[in-house]
């Protein structure tokens, strides 16, 4: 199985297949002057104004939770199995916050070109930066989700149905007890349901989703072109000494895991 490059994985975790437009949807001319001008850390008390540090901390926590929940939903609707993993979504949240914090820090250095600029930073300063980063991350996640709701990834419910039907068809056909016309009929059902699922996978926008589509298309084409029921049975069960057929079975096993991984859960089927 061809591995996805580090760049491809990083792009998926940053953009969720939505491209880099959402990063520009929150006007940079408004955001960066806010960071560079208001959050300058020149006076520890100034950034807080009438607000207390505990309130800043509360805003940060709420914004981070909202960011996670929004990205979790977006991840469920992508065709990338890794984005259906909660741990990977947490990593993305951390990545977002880290990037914005770096921007805030650069802005601080630009507006405070003093030798002791870094040593003057304290915990309240970091808290203000975290608040800005978390709020921006939440807004960014909302923009990505909005594009998702606009139909960027297709209709999740149709995809879930196609996945369930194809997996069920494979499980039924892999039953070694069936034979004759019933067996042929079940093999044809795998092809029919596979073509329906392939149509859904064509809507993949993530690099991982596109790779899954390519793998699935190659496997399905090979399975369709095989006229021998013996070969098809070997691919489904793995009970064969033929290395080529065994390789196709291993590919099928991998596909079943990945397809099941993007099948979503009850919480994502809205």
TrEMBL record:
Keywords, sorted A to Z: Membrane, Transmembrane, Transmembrane helix
Transmembrane segments: 20-41, 53-71, 91-111, 126-145
Protein's name according to its UniProt entry: Uncharacterized protein
Organism the protein comes from: Halolamina pelagica
Source lineage: Archaea, Methanobacteriati, Methanobacteriota, Stenosarchaea group, Halobacteria
């Amino acid at each position: 199985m061809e591995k996805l490059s580090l760049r491809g994985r990083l792009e998926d975790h940053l953009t969720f297949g939505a491209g880099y437009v959402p990063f520009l949807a929150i006007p940079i001319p408004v955001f960066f002057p806010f960071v560079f001008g208001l959050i300058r850390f020149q006076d520890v008390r100034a950034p807080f104004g009438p607000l207390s540090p505990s309130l800043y901390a509360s805003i940060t926590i709420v914004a981070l939770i909202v960011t996670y929940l929004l990205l979790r939903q977006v991840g469920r609707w992508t065709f990338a199995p890794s984005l259906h993993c909660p741990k990977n979504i947490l990593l993305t949240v951390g990545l977002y916050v880290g990037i914005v914090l770096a921007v805030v820090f650069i802005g601080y250095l630009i507006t405070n070109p003093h030798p002791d600029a870094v040593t003057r930073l304290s915990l309240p300063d970091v808290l203000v930066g975290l608040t800005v980063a978390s709020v921006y991350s939440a807004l960014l996640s909302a923009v990505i989700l909005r594009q998702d709701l606009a139909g960027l990834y297709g209709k999740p419910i149709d995809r879930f149905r196609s996945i369930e039907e194809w997996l069920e068809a494979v499980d039924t056909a892999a039953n070694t007890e069936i034979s004759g016309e019933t067996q042929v009929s079940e093999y044809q059902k795998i092809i029919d349901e596979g073509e329906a699922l392939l149509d859904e996978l064509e809507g993949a926008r993530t690099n991982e989703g596109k790779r899954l589509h390519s793998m699935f298309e190659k496997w399905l084409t090979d399975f369709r072109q095989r006229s021998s029921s013996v070969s098809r049975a070997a691919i489904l069960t793995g009970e064969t000494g033929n290395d080529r057929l065994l390789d196709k079975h291993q590919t099928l096993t991998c596909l079943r895991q990945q397809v099941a991984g993007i099948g979503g859960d009850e919480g994502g089927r809205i």
